[in-house]
Amino acid sequence: MTEFSLDLALGAHDLGCERGGRQVFAGVAFRVSRGGALLITGPNGAGKSSLLRTIAGLVRAARGEIRLEGGDPDLGVGRQCHYFGHQDALKPSLTVAENLEFWRVYNRPTGLETIDALDTVGIGHLADLPAAYLSAGQRRRLALSRLLVSHRPVWLLDEPQSALDAASETRLAELMRAHRAIGGIIVAATHQPLLLDAPDTLRLAPVASPAPEVAA
Amino acid sequence: MSAISALFRRELSLATRAGGGALMGALFFLIVVTVIPFGVGPDMALLARIGPAILWIGALLATLLALDRLFQADRDDGSLDLIIMGEEPVELVVVVKCLAHWAATGLPLVIATPLLAVLMNMEPDAILAATATLAVGTPALTFLGAIGAALTVTLRRGGLLLAILVLPMTVPVLIFGVSATTAAVMEPAPFMTPFLILVALALFSMVIGPIAAGAALKHGLE
Hints:
The structure holds two protein chains of two kinds. By secondary structure, chain A is of the alpha/beta class. Chain A has one domain (9-203): 3-Layer(aba) Sandwich (Rossmann fold), CATH 3.40.50.300. Chain A has helices at residues 48-55, 96-106, 114-120, 136-149, 166-181; strands at 9-19, 22-33, 37-41, 63-69, 81-84, 154-158, 185-189, 200-203. In chain A, helix 2 (96-106) runs parallel beside helix 4 (136-149) and helix 3 packs across helix 4 (136-149). The radius of gyration of chain A is 18 Å and the shape is globular. The model of chain A has no long low-confidence stretch (mean pLDDT 87). By secondary structure, chain B is mainly α. Chain B has one domain. Chain B is built from nine helices and no strands. In chain B, helix 6 crosses helix 9. Chain B starts with a helix and ends with a helix. The chains are: A alpha/beta, B mainly alpha. Chains A and B meet through helix 2 of A and helix 1 and helix 5 of B.
């Protein structure tokens, strides 16, 4: 395992996001250094997912900037992140191994071999099965294995433990610990306790917006 | 294997496996062209004259029919986010997806054309010309259609809107495709002039399509 750069740090400054003309969050600032973890909490609608998607570069920041120090300056921040969202990004007509193999090559094969990654998340015996036949938890684990086949310094996890059983949750915690041990950064949004050691916490409060006017 | 060839192979195997619908366009094309002689009646001369137009309109509709899932399938399952987060520029992703889509749905149309042209009582020269113009013209339709597919990617029922958006843009392709085919059998009219314009339109759409579709996709993700 190659380690990530020693001066790696993900920071944001005065970050604001608007979606559909509505301000989701504003004035968000954080800094996570090498091997660190940031836990984003807050009630529904506070903008946890929007913040992750903004870091991933999928949503344009209305204000502020996000920087990854010690990363590859030729790539944007988003392209050095793994995004593990609510959707599993699997194709039911491809087999488990084909699904993962595509992401491995597409995201640069810098991590584990396909079959080793499948074994790591405990679905190696299903490699030749079309993904259509997987259970929700198995789909989730296959999606998680995508983070292992390509090395990217930042993991953005959105409710990572949903649909996972207790054993898989422990496995997820081990994977996160291993990622941090080689210097990786984790940013996770959740409202359940996540098995993370000593994370920083960023609590997003819903932006006070004027009460909607009731049409007469 | 590079990221780009991995994407191409994935698109191709998704299109040709169960639920991919690669041959639906070709079957639709077959049925449209087969139905026309029943409507027109037993006038062989008329069929030969309108044959090129029928083939072209059939191919145009068949291409549009298959295009609405070009990006939407990937958007619905979250793949599109991750594909755009890859190191490849989004325009290149659009090019690769269009080429794979054309290989799976446009190429069968071109291959079926000589057979269907016989049904339309077309002369051998016209059959050859129709096949050549469709081979050049269907990629243009796919790349133009990609713009519509990218613009309607967030809409649940975008298929019809896609057709309405894209059809006006395909009019020049249709005009020069049909006129080149007709010119192949009409003595004084030159074949090469409209054919070369058709080639130019195809090249033009291959540049405009990915840039416009890429911009629409990036905007549509927000």
